[in-house]
Specification:
Helices cover 33% and strands 22% of the residues. With 491 residues, it is an alpha/beta fold.
């Protein structure tokens, strides 16, 4: 049997790689972790989830200050945003969390950490900084980078992506965002709240194109009401650098053109897998249109080499990457064949209100040919939501022919937290009757979950058939009050 330096080699120190390294080391595997950046944590910690949610929180508080009158308080005129202070807070949050993703912590777990640009020289060995490292099994978890579309003039015009937006020296006076996905929409609302004049341009007829249009349109209306401008069914034809400002030439749906002037261009048009320079073509690892090809157990065509996270082009979420990292470790180190199951993988867009999803939405259910019914509950009917001034949004529950929930979307306050109840219920096979009969503390936003579940059951329970049965067996007398018919209008 061949001898290797390590049981498990991991390329990429983001969510998937760190999860795999932590688990494999604690199971006793001699583990090597290689990261090309100077620190661990990946895109999420430095350019994604953590800085974005930190910035969103600041923008939310600033917006609350400006709208204090809606809560019965005196008018507040907050000072202009000093973005350097926002940046400082972002850096402080990252520094605090970096301790969890430190070399010292992983060394303590037993993982050797190296930094640099590795490249495979054969199926078991990579070359890094002039040294060869051989491992029995490998995980490629190198993540993704912003996709920069081939727009005329963009290569000669300054622009930013998620890599730069959290570390600006000052707040832009105006911003054109190319792309209406989660990053563009979250940043569009936040920077608009800070005082930036924001315009979002997208080729599609809706933002957040993975969501049902009615839910995405709800988010868009909130942002529009706050001042964000949208150009939908529109494409960017060219951009120009005018020195003091940028010009973005847009082709509208009717074929006409519109030129936008802005201080900053944010490119938010999707992601591409980080595979360049890894030498994958030399060892014959198969690459697809979206990233490294893997099977259900996350193995490449070389069964000892695995892929996980953004680099395989599936669900581009930190929690999905962490889940995949754990699946790889179970297979590679535990030798227990386990396949990924994304049936009830949740996700959330962190606008205000938030939009969270799990399972099937109407778009996916129709594509799958599934029969379903829809039940809704409005946040304006939830006591806690009304008390806190949140009158927008609703829960949408999809139920199959067997009265089983197959999907839930929540557009409303704390949607990302509220979806957690459905994560537990749907993964645990909990019946609607169980959820509807559970007692929630009052008044809480969580009550909206059992109320939407109860709506489906109420249709059966309060049916005319049930009334007739109870009347027959228990001699019930029926209604005790009737509303008077409205009289003719007086002239």
């Amino acid at each position: 049997m061949a001898s290797y330096d390590y049981d498990f080699g991991i390329i990429g120190g983001g969510s998937a790689g760190l999860t795999a390294a932590s688990v494999s080391s604690q199971l006793g595997a001699r583990t090597l972790l290689i990261e090309r950046e100077e620190v661990l944590g990946g895109d999420c910690l430095h350019f994604g989830c953590v800085p974005s949610k930190t910035l969103i929180r600041s923008a939310r508080v600033y917006h609350t200050m400006k709208t204090a009158e809606t809560l019965g308080l005196g008018a507040v005129d907050p000072p202009p945003v000093d973005f350097k202070k926002i940046r400082e807070r972002i850096l402080s949050v990252i520094a605090h969390l970096q301790k969890h993703d430190s070399v010292e912590r992983f060394c303590g777990l037993g993982t050797q950490v190296e930094f640099g640009e590795p490249s495979f020289v054969d199926e078991r060995t990579v070359r890094l900084n002039g040294t060869s490292y051989a491992a029995r099994k490998w995980l490629i978890a190198t993540g993704s980078s912003p996709f920069v579309p081939p727009i005329e003039g963009l290569d000669k015009t300054p622009y930013i992506t998620n890599k730069e937006i959290f570390y600006l020296d000052k707040l832009p006076g105006s911003m054109v965002i190319i792309g209406g996905g989660p990053i563009g929409i979250e940043m569009g609302q936040s920077f608009n709240r800070f005082g930036t004049d924001v315009t979002v341009v997208d080729k599609a007829d809706q933002i957040l194109n993975k969501e049902d249009k009615d839910m995405a349109d709800g988010v868009m209306k909130v942002l529009s009401d706050e001042g964000v401008k949208f150009l939908m069914n529109a494409s960017v034809e060219r951009v120009r650098d005018r020195g003091t400002h940028r010009e973005v030439e847009v082709v509208l749906q009717d074929g006409s053109k519109k030129t936008l002037s802005c201080e900053t261009i944010l490119v938010s048009s999707g992601r591409v897998p980080n595979i360049a320079g890894l030498g994958l073509e030399q060892i014959g690892v198969e690459i697809g249109r979206r990233g490294i090809k893997v099977d259900g157990r996350l193995r490449t065509n070389h069964k000892h080499i695995y892929g996980a996270g953004d680099v395989i082009g599936g669900y581009l979420f930190t929690h999905a990457s962490g889940y995949e990292g754990s699946i790889v470790t179970v297979n590679a180190i535990g030798h227990m064949p386990k396949k990924t199951d994304y049936t009830y993988l949740p996700w959330c867009t962190y606008t205000e209100p938030e939009l969270a999803s799990i399972g099937m939405n109407e778009k996916r259910a129709r594509d799958a040919g599934l029969a379903y019914t829809v039940w809704k509950e409005e946040f304006k009917n939830n006591d806690r939501s009304v008390a806190e001034g949140h009158m927008t949004g609703h829960v949408k529950l999809l139920v199959n022919e067997k009265d089983r929930p197959i999907g839930v979307q929540i557009f409303g306050p704390e949607a990302g937290t509220l979806i957690g109840e459905w994560v537990a219920a749907m993964n645990g096979g909990v019946k609607l009757s169980t959820l509807a009969s559970s007692v929630h503390p009052f008044p809480t936003l969580g009550e909206i979950n059992f109320r939407v579940a109860g709506k489906r059951l109420a249709e059966k329970f309060y049916s005319e058939k049930m009334k007739k049965i109870l009347k027959l067996f228990f001699n019930l007398k029926g209604r005790a009050c009737e509303l008077a018919e409205p009289g003719p209008e007086s002239s």
